[in-house]
Amino acid sequence: MEGVEKMLKKMTLSATERKGVRFGKKGGLGAEADPQAIGKLLSDKPASADILANTLGRVWCPIKGLLGKDLGKNRFLFTFRQPSRVRKAMYEGPWMFNNELIIMREIDPRRTLDEMEFKVVPFWIRIHNLPMGKMNVESGRLIGDEIGEALVVDVEEDGTAYGQFLRVKVCIDITKPLMRGILIEEEEVQEGTEYVEIEEDDDSGMKIIRMFRWCPFQYEFLPDLCYACGIIGHVEKSYLYS
């Protein structure tokens, strides 16, 4: 609820209301209960909980299926009849329904439904134009943590990668504009390589020029994106109504 603190300041609580209540440590779901998670579909159109559960259940719980319950505002409670498959739903996304993103969250018993945030999503990102010596786990985690939170770096058993790009799975805050790439500072300038020159002052006030390599990103399975602001979840035409 919005403005609860402001509302309480205007109220005079009775002696009974001021007592409050303290919950014990018991309660909650039993140990035998099927695990649950909450998902939010980023869509202007309402969706059916049963259709969502049937569609996603084919991937998440292909043997025993998935139960879905509508919680309002395109939020849904999912009950996993195969407990071992919860991790797939939570971390192997991004997941789409009719080309629209669905964000999964574990249930936080300390929060209300309206206090839950649905803004962090895992995406595979291809990092292009990296030198061969930087195609490794260390570089992937360093860059991934600049984008968001690095989860997985796709490398060989020896910790290195080969090819045109390095793949990193990153948890991204989709309420912020997507990064288009990253600058990698080069200590030695190589002939035939294009660089970005950035002029700045050093500690003594002298002008120095730092040389950077631009490494563009390519996002895999990217849903609807606003090309005006770079944020996922709405398209540019929505500005016509703002």
TrEMBL record:
InterPro entries xrefs: At4g02000-like, DUF4283
Residues passing through the membrane, by range: none
Name of one Pfam family that matches: DUF4283
Domain DUF4283: 38-110
Domain of life: Eukaryota
Name of the molecule in the record: DUF4283 domain-containing protein
Source organism per UniProt: Triticum aestivum
